[in-house]
Specification:
Largest sheet: 12 strands, antiparallel
Protein name: YD repeat-containing protein
Distance between the termini: 49 Å
Order of helices and strands: HEEEEEEEEEHHEEEEE
InterPro entries: RHS_repeat, YD
Number of strands: 14
Organism: Flavobacterium defluvii
Radius of gyration: 20 Å
Pfam family, one: RHS_repeat
Strand content: 35-45%
Helix content: 10-25%
Structural class: alpha+beta
Length: 207
């Protein structure tokens, strides 16, 4: 904790507790560390969580946890080029989950469950370039090709309208949800893979 204070990282909760009628029902704790995986930057290494009245508080090693195993912390000529994005983490059952970031590394464009980042890193550069400079249609085509190339993984993909919001989310089955925004950048329609309306938002100004 002192390391976070020294770096003035005081805006992120380390421990969160939830109580209902003075009875604790959940707890989450984030552990930070400086390791090879974090590029010797002080970043989260584990998240422990417990829910329900049968759980044990406070935490012990038996509690469920997510391990962060790889970050974007490339260092070339003593200059850190990565931005600290999580590239790989493992679920409580040990399943690896990899993340590919796009839109100048500002948004996740693919979440790949049951694959290490080393298995998907060869696809990253092309996907990142398409998200930065290509069309959304070309990016979706490439993301679908990634899903096909990894039959043993569960691949969820995302596209965005920069400075607006997510524009599509495609699940591991290949079903795409589309998000449409109005001229003010507000979410207007959400449609399923068949174009059926899932939800609609209407905005009115009160005089």
């Amino acid at each position: 904790m002192q390391g976070l204070i020294n770096l003035n990282k005081i805006d992120k909760p380390i421990k969160t507790e939830t109580f209902v009628n003075n009875v604790q029902t959940s707890e989450s704790m984030t552990k930070y560390g400086q390791t090879t995986a974090t590029g010797n930057l002080l970043l989260p290494t584990e998240i422990h969580s417990s829910k329900g009245l049968v759980e044990t508080f406070p935490f012990n090693n038996a509690n469920r946890k997510i391990n962060f195993t790889l970050y974007d912390t490339d260092v070339i000529n003593s200059v850190t080029l990565g931005n600290g994005n999580v590239l790989e983490y493992s679920l409580e059952n040990g399943t690896p989950v990899s993340i590919i970031w796009g839109y100048n590394k500002s948004q996740p464009i693919a979440k790949i469950e049951n694959a290490n980042y080393s298995q998907v890193s060869s696809y990253a550069a092309n996907l990142q370039n398409l998200s930065n400079t290509g069309t959304e249609a070309d990016l979706i085509t490439a993301l679908n090709a990634l899903r096909t190339a990894l039959p043993n993984a569960m691949v969820t993909t995302y596209t965005y309208l920069p400075l607006v919001g997510v524009s599509t989310i495609t699940d591991p089955k290949g079903d795409k949800i589309t998000y449409t925004y109005d001229s003010a950048g507000r979410l207007q329609f959400v449609k399923d893979a068949q174009g059926n309306l899932i939800s609609e938002n209407q905005y009115y100004y009160k005089n």
